[in-house]
Design a protein that fits this description.
The complex is a heterodimer of chains A (about 250) and B (about 775). Mean pLDDT of chain A is about 85; it is low at about 1-15. In chain A, α5 (about 160-170) packs parallel to α6. In chain A, the strands form three sheets. Chain A has a six-stranded mixed beta sheet with strand order 8-9-10-5-11-12, with helices on both faces. Chain A has helices at about 65-70, 95-105, 120-130, 135-145, 160-170, 190-205, and strands spanning about 5-10, 10-15, 20-30, 40-50, 55, 80-85, 85-90, 105-110, 175-180, 210-215, 225-230, 235-240. Chain A has one domain (about 50-75, about 95-250): 3-Layer(aba) Sandwich (Rossmann fold), CATH 3.40.50.300. Chain A has about 250 residues and is of the alpha/beta class. Chain B folds into four domains: about 1-55 and about 250-395, no CATH class; about 60-250, no CATH class; about 400-465 and about 640-780, no CATH class; about 490-610, Barwin-like endoglucanases (Beta Barrel), CATH 2.40.40. Chain B has 21 helices and 20 strands. In chain B, β7 and β8 form a beta hairpin. In chain B, α18 (about 635-690) runs antiparallel to α19. Chains A and B meet through α2 and α3 of A and α12, α18 and α21 of B.
């Protein structure tokens, strides 16, 4: 990707010279009603282009996860519009969103979400079986450096290993978008770096557009672009002139 | 102050309301059946005992041809005899033009000392008779009610061949005729059998019995030896044509009543107890699994520092609320059930008062057992979780590499399912067993219809092939058969000889009408267990299997027979075979052989008739006009009585059991599905996030349920047959026995209900999966 080729505009972060894959316009998300209503997103605009590595930073309650869930087809905004390429994500049926997730999106969550009764390889196979053009599960596992533990069950792995299985499971379908919600939140520094390295390889070798949510500012160094959220809006944007490799991150 | 954990009890109850409701209904059903059925049985026993006591039901009886009152002195001197009451008891016929069928009756004399008398006659309506009046009688309420007879109505009675009209002073009831069956008839028929009580003088005069008696009843001093008294009585009465004294166990009404109560023990005790036992096993399993599904929460509480006891108490409270609610419902419904059953019994058991007498221990035991089952189910699960270190409890168990099904390459979802089943074998087995036991819960209610249909077919179609059995007033030459055969419309007539006899095998005795059949008889066909007709042996005796068991004899055994009529001869005869019957304890032998034992030839005492069904309206009245006919048992009438009385009792119980079986079956299946979902909600939500469709995700759970249900059905069907056979094997009864017959239809219905419940639960799972909150699931770690 063209590092440093992005400029912010007053209308919101925008990719110059390339059509965005994700767009969001005037997204509102409100939980509850009346005085107890919580506004997770307030008129949020966003564009993310293909192959971009975006880090969303922000304190708890800033709306990061809500935004990611809407972009991943897990949640619907209260108002506004979100699209992925020519897919309308707002107003889509549950079946359309399921197909969208199945065909295009890989998720990584803070708590791994592996199926305990399946081995490492089987957890990856689970997704490969329903993907149209998957890589082989072993290839995905070697991308995350876990070729040697494919026959273990999740409960026999460390947290970092489990999270790398989750990454392998997310990338085995060669996803167009890899959405990661606090992928290192439960991990120590060194383990976290291994997971981030796996995500970075997916971005580089599979070409997935990556969005990583974190409250760990150090991770921002490996992004093409860093978006800061506060109170349901994007309050800052930085474009990294040069990305750091995960091993060089410090926190 | 309400503790937080207590608030959690209510929140959990409300969050799991579907499961809580079905579990509470399961438990309420179990308690209803337990309380209702045992309450019914206890009420019957208590009503009988109170009635026997209040009415001074006699301890011993003896019949003679005719004995002078002067014999009363020596009789009352027999040691152990507390009181003696002489009577004249005679069979009569009622001239009742409204009836096509002949009506037989029995008249019993009442002495003047009625206050102290044994077998006190209770006047239900009208007034007592004036013993000085010759033309007043009391009539049994059952007969009066079936014909709408009121006090002061007239009734024409043929006594000793003379027609006499009496005024009905009152409707009455006696402990000797609680079960008012005509002698020789297997079922009480209120419409064709009447009991009359008349003044001593009137009855004695009519039968030329002044200063004499032909029937005695006795009360005995507590602690006396009945066999010795019987022996003493028999010795004293023998010269007067004594037919052998007998105690309550051989008194016809009481014997019938005892048999009925024994049968009710099956219906009212064994079935509900098994039903209840299975229910509380299911309750234990369901609650155990429900609590097990909360293992994360339990572990968190423990990790927070809660000691084990408050955690256990918390779940006990959860279970306690369910039990308390279910108990209230169960007791209330149980009381309704008891009342309903007693209402069905009232026409059958003629007690002056048949009211609910349910001891407190019945509901107490029912509730205690179910609470114990529920509590132990919950506590076992809590304890299993607490035994783990919190960290282990919050971590998933390592499943075994078990899904290598030979020759089949399973996809990852199938592996999830298989490992879910195989990886926790005990839970899977308990679930399969629970689902399996849902089948007998239904079969226990439904099979009664099959059993009834089978009983009717076997007894009234295969064994008893005659349309009517005519009892003669006394044994007569075979000519009597030809006379009856000559009635227009009678297609076939067969003579039989029935002699009152006492069968003896060691200390065991049984008194019955021993039936002599023609060796080529066609109208009564004793059959073996597989329903093949059994030939009447030239010598030797055939016994029904139940009678042989009661006497403790087998084919080949020798049996002593005391004939209680005529010359009262005795003989020893070999048991040549066993026959299977539904109604009655019977014994058969060759008619010539029986006549030979009686030192007679060619006599018959009853005639079986096959008739043209189109001509019954002329045949039955013709029979009732003929002399020397004591009574006629008509098969269609017997069937009708059977239908009205036996069926009504069985069917109430069957409907109740079927309904509750259904509730329990659905509750078990629903909970199995629901808990399966609860345990895997997080996993399934993860699959949904990955892009698996709702159908794909619910199919994992539905497949899981389907596999368990499929494994459960054959086990369930086998266990249903086993449980029913076991239950009916427990019974010991004389009047009729309920065969362990379960039709393919009942099996299919039960299986279909379980499958239907599984399909409905599957749809419900689908509905739930559609509503899984994906975002919320991802935010938490289980």
């Amino acid at each position: 990707m063209n590092n440093g080729a992005y400029l912010g505009t007053s209308g919101g972060p925008r990719l110059r010279g390339s059509a965005p894959v994700f767009t969001a316009r005037a997204l509102f998300k409100t939980y509850g009603t009346g005085e107890t209503a919580v506004h997770a997103l307030r008129e949020l605009d966003l564009d993310i282009s293909a192959g971009e590595f975006v880090v969303l930073l922000g304190p708890s309650g800033s709306g990061k996860s809500t935004l990611l869930n809407i972009l991943g087809g897990l949640d619907a905004p209260t108002s506004g519009r979100a699209t992925w390429r020519d897919h309308e994500l707002t107003g889509a049926t549950e079946a359309d969103l399921t197909r969208y997730r199945r065909e295009h999106v890989g998720f990584v969550f803070q708590f791994y979400n592996l199926i305990p009764s399946l081995t490492v390889r089987e957890n990856v196979e689970l997704v490969a079986e329903i993907a149209s053009d998957p890589m082989s599960p072993d290839e995905a596992l070697s991308l995350v450096g876990l070729s040697h533990r494919t026959a273990h069950f999740p409960s026999q792995l460390s947290g970092g290993e489990q999270q790398r299985v989750a990454v392998a499971r997310a990338i085995v379908k060669r996803p167009d978008a890899l959405l990661c919600d606090e992928p290192t939140g439960a991990l120590d520094v060194e383990t976290g770096k291994l997971v981030l390295a796996a995500i970075e390889r997916a971005n580089r070798e599979v070409g997935s557009t990556v969005i990583v949510i974190t409250h760990n500012t150090a991770i921002a160094g490996m992004a093409d672009r860093v978006l800061r959220l506060g109170a349901g809006r994007i309050v800052g944007e930085e474009v990294n002139a040069s990305k750091l490799s995960p091993e060089d991150l410090q926190w | 102050m309400v503790k937080v954990l207590d608030r959690k009890v209510w929140r959990d109850l409300s969050a799991m309301k579907g499961q809580v409701l079905t579990i509470a209904m399961l438990l309420a059903s179990a308690i209803t059946v337990f309380v209702g059925a045992i309450g019914t049985y206890m009420s019957l026993l208590e009503s009988r005992d109170r009635y026997y006591q209040d009415s001074r039901f006699a301890d011993l009886w003896a019949e003679v041809e005719r004995a002078p009152r002067s014999l009363l002195g020596p009789l009352s001197e027999i040691s152990g005899i507390a009181s003696v009451e002489p009577r004249v008891v005679k069979d009569v016929r009622i001239d009742w033009p409204a009836s096509d069928l002949s009506i037989s009756g029995r008249i019993v004399s009442i002495g003047r000392r009625s206050e102290t008398a044994l077998n006190k006659v209770t006047i239900l309506r009208g007034s007592a008779i004036d013993p000085s009046k010759q033309n007043e009688v009391l009539i049994n309420a059952a007969f009066a009610e079936s014909w709408g007879i009121e006090p002061n109505d007239g009734i024409a009675v043929i006594l000793n061949g003379r027609l006499q009209t009496f005024r009905v002073a009152g409707l009455a009831q006696s402990p000797e005729y609680v079960y008012g069956a005509r002698p020789g008839s297997p079922l009480p028929d209120d419409r064709t059998f009447a009991v009359l009580w008349g003044g001593e003088e009137a009855v004695a005069n009519a039968f030329d019995m002044e200063g004499a008696f032909n029937s005695l009843s006795f009360s005995v001093a507590p602690g006396s030896s009945l066999p010795r008294i019987v022996a003493d009585l028999d010795r004293l009465l023998e010269p007067f044509g004594g037919r052998g004294a007998y105690d309550r166990t051989e008194q016809p009404s009481n014997r019938f009543l005892s048999d009925e109560l024994a049968e009710q023990r099956t219906l009212a005790l064994a079935v509900p107890v098994v039903f209840f036992a299975v229910s509380i096993f299911l309750l234990n399993a369901v609650l155990g699994r429900l609590v097990q599904a909360q293992r994360e929460q339990i572990a968190s509480l423990k990790a927070l520092g809660y000691p084990s006891i408050p955690i256990g108490l918390h779940y006990l409270k959860f279970v306690g609320v369910i039990c308390a609610a279910a108990s209230v419902v169960g007791i209330v419904l149980g009381a309704f059930y008891t009342d309903g059953m007693l209402a069905a019994y009232r026409p059958f058991f003629r007690f002056p008062e048949l009211a609910a007498h349910v001891p407190y221990w019945v509901p107490a035991v029912g509730i205690a057992l179910s609470a114990a089952a529920a509590g132990s189910g919950a506590l076992n699960s809590v304890r299993r979780v607490l035994r783990l270190r919190p960290a282990d409890a919050m971590r998933s168990a390592v499943p075994g590499h078990t899904a290598k099904v030979i020759g089949v390459r399973l996809n990852a979802r199938a592996k999830m399912m298989v490992r879910g089943l195989v990886g926790r074998p005990i839970r899977t087995l308990v679930t399969i067993l629970s689902l399996a036991l849902a089948v007998p819960m239904l079969v226990l209610g439904l099979f009664w219809w099959d059993a009834l249909a089978y009983m009717i077919e076997v007894q009234f179609d295969r064994i008893e092939r005659a349309d009517a059995i005519v009892s003669l007033t006394d044994a007569r030459p075979e000519r009597a058969v030809y006379e009856l055969a000559g009635i227009p419309g009678v297609l076939m007539a067969e003579g039989q000889r029935v002699v009152e006899a006492r069968l003896r095998a060691g200390p065991r005795t049984y008194r019955l009408g021993l039936t002599g059949l023609l060796r080529d008889a066609e109208l009564r066909l004793p059959r073996s267990e597989d329903l093949a007709p059994i030939d009447i042996p030239k010598s030797g005796i055939l016994l029904t299997t139940e009678l042989a068991n009661r006497l403790g004899v087998m084919p080949g055994s020798l049996l002593a027979i005391d004939l209680l009529e005529g010359r009262r001869t005795s003989a020893t005869i070999q048991v040549s075979g066993l026959v299977d019957e539904v109604l009655g304890y019977n014994a058969y032998m060759d008619i010539d052989e029986l006549n030979h034992l009686m030192r007679q030839t060619g006599l018959v005492s009853q005639v079986s008739l096959k008739v043209d069904p189109r001509q019954t309206s002329s045949i039955w009245p013709e029979l009732s006009k003929r002399p020397r006919i004591a009574g006629t048992t008509i098969k269609s009438v017997l069937l009708q009585i059977f239908d009205e009385k036996v069926r009504s009792i069985i069917i109430i119980a069957a409907v109740v059991l079927t309904t509750f079986g259904l509730i329990i079956a659905v509750g078990v299946v629903y909970n199995a599905a629901r808990i399966g979902l609860q345990e895997r909600a997080w996993e399934l939500a993860s699959l949904r996030v990955m892009g698996f469709t709702r159908r794909e995700v619910s199919n994992i759970l539905i497949g899981d349920l389907a596999v368990q249900a499929m494994a459960a059905l054959p086990i369930g069907l086998l266990s249903a047959q086993g449980i029913v056979s076991l239950l009916l094997g427990l019974r010991e009864n004389e009047s009729f026995r309920i065969p362990a017959v379960i039709s393919a239809g009942t099996f299919a219905t039960s299986a279909l209900v379980v499958i239907g419940a599984a399909v409905a639960s599957g749809l419900l799972i689908r509905w739930r999966v559609d509503r899984l909150d994906l975002v919320a699931v991802l935010k938490t770690r289980e």
